[in-house]
Fold each of these.
Amino acid sequence: MFDTLLIANRGEIACRVAATARRMGLRTVAVYSDADANARHVAACDQAVYIGGSEPRASYLRADAILQAAIDTGAGAIHPGYGFLSENEAFAEAAEKAGIAFVGPPASAIAAMGSKSAAKSLMEKAGVPLVPGYHGDNQDPQFLKTQADGIGYPVLIKASAGGGGKGMRVVESSGAFLDALASCQREAASSFGDDRVLIERYLQKPRHIEIQVFADTHGNCVYLFERDCSVQRRHQKVIEEAPAPGMTEERRRAMGEAAVAAARAVGYVGAGTVEFISEPDGRFYFMEMNTRLQVEHPVTEMITGHDLVEWQLRVAAGQPLPARQEDLRINGHAIEARIYAENPEKGFLPSIGTLAYLGLPPHTAFANADVRVDGGVRTGDTITPFYDPMIAKLIVHGADRDQARARMLQALAQTQAVGVQTNVAFLSRLMQDSAFAAADLDTGLIERQRATLLPEPQAASAAVLALASAAVLVRQGLAQPGPQTAGKGPSDPWDARDGWRLGNQYQRHLQWVDNGETRRVTVARQGGAWTLDAGSGAQPFLWRSHASANPNLAYGLRITLAGHESAGTVVLHADRAHVFGEGGVHVLELYDPLAHAQDTQGEHGGGLTAPMPGKIISISVKAGDTVEKGQPLLVMEAMKMEHTISAPADGRVEEVFYGVGDQVTEGAELVSIGA
């Protein structure tokens, strides 16, 4: 076994690998970019090496810099994580030539499965069923369009070297094909350095089921059962679970054996995932093989009890697999939810910013966990536009799916992030959705259930307003005795913090801005009795605060308003109250009339602004052009994904403020359109 491991990645996977390596007694080396100098994965390792600029091409995609870091630190092995160079055959080959173990398959296996087109051709020869499509080398746009027309719409364009939903588009008609193809090719080139694509028939109501395989250098190969990854947005997984609901033993064995056969066909070694797409009648088709560990590997660990990273390290050191096929069993059910910094209500656009506060549910180590958290960021860290905006993964285990789903709901209720927008409330709604609860799963579930999963914003309830107001009072040092201290007042009356005033009266007026609407709240004390008026008259009001992870920022509260109890955590940050309770989060702004006295309403009404920081990669209009509502104006790239900015109404372009290649900040005016 090597004694030093270099982790050629960042974020939660780097932290995850570092934890297992430490448990195995290995020394770990992190690599980092300008954006990651103070990142959590750097602190998690014994040593850290700087490898370049913030953009992946200047750091985490620099095979030469990472390999040199391994040589300089005496690392005996490199763990590539997932993404970046994890499926780069040249990197694996270079490590091997340098005498450093690559924790993954041989370069030949990566080459065989790294191209979706080549992999499908290989599977076709092996008799594995494939979705009808074109997987060849001819990348001429008109030729590809002819192929798509012949397959029949809708079709799916996919980057040949892709993954994670990048470089993928569903095309509904022949007329939309060429624009979608160009967008896919740009995104594929940016994300993977390879703009080749393949085309397939887009299946209706498909399920995405994948098989975890593992092979060693001694000829052993097993499958560790399946994961259902059907719940997706933008072709990227949101929820993963194991085992797949409704899976029969016969079908599980058939898919598992097919996956093992695929791995053996390319001389596979290490952890890999064979992905299938399944139709409602149970027929399944080979989609691709990911020659690396997957983001969703923890659900497999939870149901099997095996640490897959430890398996990877042992196999890379030449040891045999720790278990045979007949030794493997499924225990219970596991669900993983990916916590992203993004705005579901705005098309799941990534959210950039600093995590002013991050609260996570109580969790234990992987071995016997009911709740597990894999994370790569901490309070104070910044979610940048350079990398995937995942904050953490929540993984729960239960005796069955219903118990796992209930535990996930509880874990989500205890997950609190301030400073960026997140998908936590969306995930909570998803866990409670009737289709998800009934395991009526397919890749279109989110879009199909959009009305309930992405409802219109609701006005804050009186309880939410009361929680926010109570937090303000507590922050100002105003305490109200709870049951445990009732009748035990301070020995010195000057120590009392109960709002006493001359005349025995206290009154505080608060103005909260709730989704653009001003909500007025009055908290009053008359004698020893408190009331709160949130617009429906004064009602009896009590509150108690309890300790929180960050008492200077977050306030754990339990209130009683008109006899009804509510509990929640309120984070006060930058004149806003983030109220975590009632199954979600409600953000209220504390309005200060003096601070807003000089505000004007003279904003330019015809401007189009950047929804996030990013780079302009395509502009299709110029000053003087006449545009129609919905017409694409320009394309931005952020976090390896493209975002099209379209005209909100008919008009005339007055000015384009940026050029192709320019970096823009969130809120920057991009185009001015007049009547």
Note: Residues 481-488, 597-605 have pLDDT under 50 and may be disordered.
Amino acid sequence: MKKITWLFLLLLNVQFSIAQTIAIDTDANNPEQSTTKKNKKGWVFSKMAVASANLLATKAGYQILQAGGNAVDAAVAAQLVLNLVEPQSSGIGGGAFLLYFDGRHIQAWDGRETAPAGAHEHMFVQQGQAMPFMEAVASGLSVGVPGTLRMLDQAHQKHGKLAWSKLMQPAIQLATRGFPVSERLNALLKNDAYLKNDSQSFQYFYQPNGGAWPVGHRLKNPDFVDTLQRIAKKRSAALHEGPIAQAIVKKIQTHPLQPGTMQLSDLKNYQAKLRQSLCFDYSAHQKIYRICGFPPPSSGLLTMGQIMGMLENKSIEWLTSETPLTWQPQALHAYIEASRLAYADRAMYMADPDFVQAPVGDWSSMISKKYLEERSALITDQRATQVNAGQPFFKKTNLASMIDQPEYGTSHLSIIDAKGHAVSMTTTIENGFGSRQMVSLGKKGGFLLNNELTDFSFLSHDAQGVPIANRVAAGKRPRSSMNPLLVFDVLPNGQTGALQMSLGSPGGAAIIHYTTQTLLAMLHGKLWAQDAINLPHLGVLSPNGPVFAERGMFSKTQSDVLEQKGHRWIEVDLSSGIQALQRTPLGWHGGADPRREGWVMGQ
């Protein structure tokens, strides 16, 4: 696995003026050297830090902090650069969840996409059967009303420090000058079978002969510059109303194979939601931590809380003492069994809370100590078991399970500013390159639209005719696995103490496993973030399905033990993209996933 280093950008003038244009070096291969203190575990920062999925986005966020901005300001700038340099994963055509800690309170900003008013529960059904997944993805039907920009706008109006227009500058300059095509982007373009079908995407991402732009090619996006300049003047209204909104609707409604139903009113009426964050307490090494994240429509925090809650009181030795460090096979068995139970509940109950009632009126009932003790008793040391959803309602329910659909186009960033305020934000356009539809007011670039509606269940009822919780409905937000986290210690009086971590990851339904396993390694193994991120991943994506294990990362001993216990073992590529910032005795330590292009900078 490639070695990750953490560097921060030295500014040309330490008295950098907020009024100046914020410039960014577009050479992703030649970062400036850092004077930040380094120890054997990596780079640590005493004042501030930014971790994102791409060096150029990290630079943009860090420069905003250096210019006097706060964590929310830096998140806006970093997201817009990610839209440009990592277009397959996130952007203003998609949605996001943002956790913000202002030193006293946590705010959960929900920018998840919504189904347009014309959506209905049979829209992905053809002749009584669920539509083929990729046929639905690469269509006008799959596009949800974008929420990322409106959410960032609302969060910035409440918490931002720098002028909104200044936050556009790094992305505007990069789009104007161009940025080097990375190995990852080049490989994804080569392997995508649908992007070329959209003429605007083809003209931007590919050479005239059909080949993907080579690694290092400087890719410019003048139409995205125009879009950003409009956003700088009119904020999110530039996307949700006027010419750009009209271009979005036209693109969706005139799709040549499967046109969608989105209207201008869907875009204009979209609002992000400020939700109550959801937290659970977890003990490790006689210390209690408070782990906070998103309630539904995200399933991330609830499913993580169930897995960790079921395992909390079991005597488990998590990690081996051998080199390289890895998981104990018996610990993996217990983890898999807890995951099966949690994913059964996830499939049965979790969906948009505006459409689905929480158990006994409160989602926290699903992570209550009493309920998880009952579920934990079903886990045995000997064999894998067949599982079903539990009854956190304590009565029968009419909700049914669904088959999970993958979501690959996702990213994460974590930020700590000079005041100790923090952002943990996971952002997505769902599948790689979303719906494969590029939008702008010209034909020289633009931004991609999401395919987020394929996160709904394609079928509205199960085989017994029972309604499925995550079925499509107009105005509904599809269930997500995104799991941005903020972790705190807990004071002796039970109050929330100091911020300890900010972390998250892309990875579809496997996001829950990536974040949970990283957190378990940090808490039980007392690992620093980078060492925890480097550990191999595995997990289940359905209650009674196979175990998916990261290819080439587990020993035969580990797989043999689990197969002997009845687990069906399948090795696959698991491309997590975990970004984490962690409080240590030396300062803020940053970890970036070597499986992608993550980078950390700070001061």
Note: The longest strand covers residues 422-430.
Amino acid sequence: MTTALARKPNKWLVTVSITFGTLMGAIDASIVNVAMPHLRGAVGATLQEITWISTGFVIATVLVMPLTAFLGRQFGQKRVYLACLVLFVLGSALCGMARSLWTLVFFRMLQGFGAGALQPTEQAILRQTFPPEEQGTAMALFGMAVMLGPAIGPTLGGWIVDNYEWPWIFYINVPVGILGFFMVTSFVQEDEQIREANRATAELERKHMDWAGIALMTVGLASLQYFLEEGAADDWFESRSITAVFCVAIVALIGFVWRELTATAPVVNLRLFKDKVFLSGTLISSLMFAMLMTSMFLLPVFMEEMLGFTATQAGMALIPRVLVMMVISPMIGKMYGRVPTRLLVAMGVLFFCAGAWLQRGFTLETTQSGIVGAICMQGVGFACLFVPLTATSLASIPRHLMTDATGLNSLLRQMGGSIGLAVFATLLGRYGVQAKASIAAHLDPTRQPVAERLALLERSGILQGMDPARAHTRAVAMLGGIATRQGMVLAFEKVFLLAGLLFLLVLVLLPFLKTVAPQIGKKIEVHLE
């Protein structure tokens, strides 16, 4: 025991070591989005087929997250992290070499299987490494990696594809991953107390292997994630295949929950949700992540499709929010435990909603500087939300069950983000159609303003050498295009506002956010039931 205490790892070296993997996994979830046109040409895929590059990665990631604790008990937490990091780096290298669609999808799934365990393992290691009074700081460091990844991904991907070949969006992971591997090997140590506490549970799990639970979880989560990723493209329940996948997901997940609550040695510890602190914090975190991912998705689309920004310009416009989160998150971490959690969360909600209110005023004339104020305000909001919610969610979890809790916490955050993207992407399309129809109803050629605009467009065509009939056809088409663009602007405004209004619901949920003071020196107990 004395030797173990003498060799206590340096918490800052541990943090830097394990952050490489989480940051790379978070970046890779979004970095390929800006490279899709290049990838389509390279592998000869249709627009619908190429989405499997993202879908396969996300499905693989969510399948591994809840199994992280089980794998850690069987093989050791550090070994699982290193193995997944190697798998992620190997998958990255193979993705860069792929020259057909389905080999690229397969290698992206390898990446996803590797990335799935990195995030919950880092979260657990940080919770186990930092003392109770510094848990806010630990979660601030973790939150920076989780939140910065989706923000940096499109910017980095846009810069790479603009200046280099598309394989480098994958190759860039290799040297970073190798550095992370050697740092984890050198500086991260497994806690012998936790290993000892998990030994009996691991033996029981091997004796009563929960194959049914693993099968039901795999089918249920894969089906649900496919439904969320591909449902919008097939008009949701208008498609028989999407409806069938949804039904399979619901049945499998209900069976999975029943199995895990009755199994002798469940592969996923769903009993943790009996802890009201963990349950309330995790659910509110999922709602927060839904808003975060929605914002990360909507803003680049608005800037590129409405304002004509390049991928790099859109990414650079988001950098101020990243910088704000980097500055504010450590400050919130220091405040955690000194300022009531509910107050910090309420501040975060209000900052996010204020940013959403500013976003609803975006027009086709909005510039980069006009966007910065709104997104910086939301950056402050996300920092105020993520740190206290993540720290509070895990405050009452015993150290030897920390990886179980972080796996579930990461899974629900990921699912919250997927649900948010699916819902708001669908609403954006529907609001755009409705707004265009509303505007088109006023485009009566007999109305003087409409007639004047048509005449102006026709004269422009004639001056360019067109005959009057062709110029008229072109003018009508251009007027329709203007109506479509204005309709989409109105749709974006409506969605931005709706996101802010829905997020106000978190204020209603605050009374249900249970909090608990950090328990210093809490004894580890082994629970086999």
Note: The chain is about 80% helix and 0% strand.
